[in-house]
Amino acid sequence: MSVNKVILIGNVGQDPEVKHLDKDVTVARFPLATSESYTAKNGEKVTATEWHNIVVWRGLAKVVEQYVHKGDKLYLEGRIRTRSWDDKDGNKRYTTEINVDNMEMLTPKGQSTGAQQTSAPSNQQAASVSEPDFSSSDEDDLPF
Questions:
Q1: Half-sphere exposure (Cβ direction) of 137: Cα atoms closer than 13 Å
Q2: I need a surface site. Which of 29, 76, 101, 106 has the fewest CB within 10 A?
Q3: Which residue windows are transmembrane per the record (predicted)?
Q4: How far is CA 94 from CA 4, 50, 52, 68, 143, in A?
Q5: Which residues does residue 85 pair with via DSSP β-bridges, in sequence order?
Q6: CA distance linking residue 85 with residue 41, whole number of Å
């Protein structure tokens, strides 16, 4: 048995980039920052920030498009996925992403730091959808 499960709580680094693909498939991408603080040997407090590439599909991507903005705090559950592609110069490129299948918005209503402050109805504060089956998806070849 193997498990690929990621849980993150962090802040959105920029407004999501949303694309509408064929057959009413929506994908949203954005960076998420998580931070850890610790005290170094010299007594200095150190904060280390890790950036994660977040990918959200279909119905949950539509929720992201409407309600998620730069600075918002999110709880995300998903899976780590590494993709590769050839860039325009023929070089092999790699990216590691978190494919999200569950999201909860943690920023209190009305306190979004995004330019388009929108209050989500309470029934949409937590949303989840099933992740598509990537084994037969042409979307795998997209370098974004």
A1: 15
A2: 106
A3: none
A4: 19, 18, 14, 26, 9
A5: 93
A6: 42
Fold of the domain spanning 6-141: OB fold (Dihydrolipoamide Acetyltransferase, E2P) (2.40.50)
Q: Where are the domains of the chain?
A: 6-141
For the chain, state the CA radius of gyration. 17
Task: Give dist(CA 92, CA 86) in Å, integer.
Answer: 5
Q: Is the C-alpha dihedral spanning 65, 101, 33, 82 positive or negative?
A: negative
Q: Which amino acid is at 30?
A: F
- Contact indicator for 28, 61 with CB cutoff of 8 Å: yes
Residue 84 Cα distances to 4, 30, 81, angstroms: 19, 18, 10
pLDDT digits (tens, 9 = 90+) for 61-119: 999 999 999 999 999 999 999 999 999 999 999 999 999 999 999 988 777 665 443 33
Q: Spell out where the chain has E strands.
A: 6-12, 17-21, 25-39, 45-57, 73-86, 92-105, 126-128
Nearest in space to 126 (alpha carbons), one of 93, 98, 102, 144: 102
Q: What pLDDT, on the 0 to 100 scale, is given for residue 117?
A: 39
Residue 116, strand partner residues? none
